[in-house]
Design a protein that fits this description.
Blueprint: H1 2-18, H2 27-33, E1 41-53, E2 59-71, E3 75-91, E4 97-115, E5 122-132, E6 137-153, E7 157-172, E8 177-192, E9 197-208, E10 212-223, E11 228-239, E12 249-260
Antiparallel strand pairs: 1-2, 1-12, 2-3, 3-4, 4-5, 5-6, 6-7, 7-8, 8-9, 9-10, 10-11, 11-12
Length: about 260
Amino acid sequence: MKSTHSLALALAMAITCGGAAAKDAKDSKQSMLFDEIPIGSWSTSAELGAITTSGNTVGTSVTGKIDARQELDDWSNQYIFSGYFKEDETTNDEGQKIRERSAERFSASAKAAYKLMADHEKLFVLASHVNDKFGAYTKYSTLAVGHGSRWYQSSDKSVDVEVGPGYFSGTNDTGESEHGLTVRGAAAMKWKISQSAMFTQTVSVERGTSNTHSIAETALSTKINGTMQMKAAFSARNDTRVPDDKKNTDTQTSLTLVYSF
């Protein structure tokens, strides 16, 4: 996971340092690049992916996500809901075939960002909650505030960064509760590879006194038509403090269909 963070941060720094001259690109091209939402409107995307196997291996996995964004004169709001579950068919000690749930995670987050006078400068409040039945933390809630800004923007790339203090409360797999103050940092890079393809890289790190919680996602989206996209993504979640019978990092590779409206 450290290598994932290092690669993302190194990429962000390289783009920032190497692109100073590109900051003078025309505003019209910049606004067209990332399909900015008009003031007073919503932009919502829903994605869904499913895999079903039969024969020697029987199982089903489903992943889904809803991302709703709202732009107002002074505020930018975002609401995200996502879920993932997996069932496998196994044989018990009596020789009977049964279906068992091996993964079940649901998460929700809401962020309100107040726009400052400078372009892409914002103050934000973020709240999130995760229920993960089979994770190192079965429940994990976060409240954070801070400042966000755009470090770099050109005709085909942008890097946004957020930093600020926060508070977390969680319950690990053994039932032990943890809570405390954190320092949160996040970065998001977008790269418009072509008129129909977009590469994104996001990283967030919450460092507390007892645990460091990190999430990273690498994704490539390709347009099918005006409202449909195909998205391939790899995501990783890491906690530095976990029970002895749990691994520090959970990963997920997905291929989903995204509908925007």
